[in-house]
Amino acid sequence: MAAAAANGAGGGGGVPRPTNPMVTPLLTDLYQFTMAYAYWKAGKHLDRAVFDLYFRKNPFGGEFTIFGGLEECIRFIANFKLTDTEIIFLRSAMPTCEDGFFEYLSSIDCSDVAVYAIPEGSVVFPKVPLMIIEGPVAVIQLLETPFLSLVNYASLVTTNAARHRLVAGKPKNLLEFGLRRAQGPDGGISASRYCYMGGFDATSNVAAGRLFGIPIRGTHSHAFVSSFMGLDDIIDRTLASSDGSNKCEDFVSLVQNWLARIKDAGSLRGTFRETNLSELAAFTSYALAFPNSFLALVDTYDAAGIRLDSGDLAYLSVETRKFFRAIEEEFGFIGFGKMNITASNDLNEETIDALNKQGHEVDAFGIGTYLVTCYAQAALGCVFKLVEINKQPRIKLSEDVSIPCKKRCYRLFGKEGYPLVDIMTGEDEPAPKVGERLLCRHPFNESKRAYVVPQHVEELLKSRCMGYLDRMRPDHMRRLNPTPYKVSVSAKLYDFIHFLWLNEAPVGELQ
Ligand SMILES: Nc1ncnc2c1ncn2[C@@H]1O[C@H](COP(=O)(O)OP(=O)(O)OP(=O)(O)O)[C@@H](O)[C@H]1O
Ligand SMILES: O=P(O)(O)OC[C@H]1O[C@H](OP(=O)(O)OP(=O)(O)O)[C@H](O)[C@@H]1O
Ligand SMILES: O=C(O)c1cccnc1
Ligand SMILES: [Mg+2]
């Protein structure tokens, strides 16, 4: 099992700081510091603890999740160090705590912390730890809230993006347009980054383009279109070819000539309606500014062309395509019929699915609000639970039973090459072997078990490549009634969980 050990000294040993400078050791809940104090008072602060970070249920009614946020967690622990001013603030916030505690706090870093993790971008399932974090209990406790804050939304929005990619299909261009609608600047930046991880092609967010190297794309807005009154607004009418070899002195007249030709074309009669001259001025002006990447927002007055942002997107995209093809045929402009049609306006999984069913001609979807706010599910609900302290396994019984012990986790693949089941074992158990029959048990349901003869075994929680979406059996990934993927434990771990469970659960007395 490969571990990422953090070097907290000297500015993170070359590991960059978290992207968001607000991510500091104080970005945690007060109770992490009060517990750290109580551990310290009890002389327990150096006890060796193992915590699992996992979630309990897949989001969006689906049967899979994509893990995001790991890199930021590693950046955080690599640079973990409380500054003098942070210590002064903590002293004022916890006035009853002894001085020695603050001296201890100012001395800590995460050089004694080990993180075992599934690679970011992997398909993951409930109960299996995404990260196992091991180290001195007081320090690990301080990591709980920042880690959950860095992983919860990241994984949720990555999953949301992947679901939009699955419904849109591979050839479509997916553009994330959510910055203006996201939950503040950090929500917007995170959304752009993790939607790209989840399978989007580009973002409109310029800062995210700079920070993460994500391709940035955009069209123009209704304001640009409605800011023009008519063709007289255009002062400089010259258009030169990019190599300077050709020059059109009056592009506006050229546009007007073409407009007349299109109107006269017999084959276009009936499909071509009156032109709004202020809209024509806006498009002409935009073409003069971007002659090699022209794109027109065409629905400010009436829908006819290239980014559609209202109305029936299926119908309008089909009509637009017909018109483009007719122009190609009438005037012999090779490729005109294939011109890009982008659609936006409150799109989400359901609307894209509806458009697919109706038939449409959209090449690119621009998606904002529903994507970045994760409108269909507010949070993933990742948790951070103690599973072992000083080599003693721990279990949490209330609400949802946690799976004790420092574990190893494997993904077992079947004959058809798809993953069949994830299995958790105790740390010292032998790894599952290819071709060897293995009993996989549901962690809590006694009757649910299956023998598996794996054709291929991958250990989870160690660094490895991504690109899992394509490798999953399609019925786990479908939108409607997806098949649950199986998560199991070894027979030995099953027996141990239930032994510990009975041991920890008090026997009531009836009188
Ligand atoms: N063919 C279609 N099938 C299903 N949903 C569609 C189809 N075309 C558009 N939609 C969706 O229907 C909704 C249309 O919303 P609404 O009626 O508020 O928009 P509009 O009136 O066309 O435009 P505006 O945003 O200017 O008000 C959007 O969520 C859009 O994504
Ligand atoms: O619809 P979303 O999925 O959130 O995608 C982003 C939206 O942002 C822009 O709208 P704008 O801010 O101009 O407002 P409007 O479309 O609501 O008028 C754009 O026209 C999209 O409709
Ligand atoms: O470039 C666009 O078309 C765009 C960008 C952000 C939001 N809506 C649209
Ligand atoms: Mg809109």
From TrEMBL:
GO terms for molecular function: nicotinate phosphoribosyltransferase activity; transferase activity. Pathway: Cofactor biosynthesis; NAD(+) biosynthesis; nicotinate D-ribonucleotide from nicotinate: step 1/1. CDD domains: NAPRTase_A (cd01570). NCBIfam families: NAPRTase_put. Residues 176-400 form the Nicotinate/nicotinamide phosphoribosyltransferase domain. GO terms for cellular component: cytosol. Transiently phosphorylated on a His residue during the reaction cycle. Phosphorylation strongly increases the affinity for substrates and increases the rate of nicotinate D-ribonucleotide production. Dephosphorylation regenerates the low-affinity form of the enzyme, leading to product release. This is Nicotinate phosphoribosyltransferase.
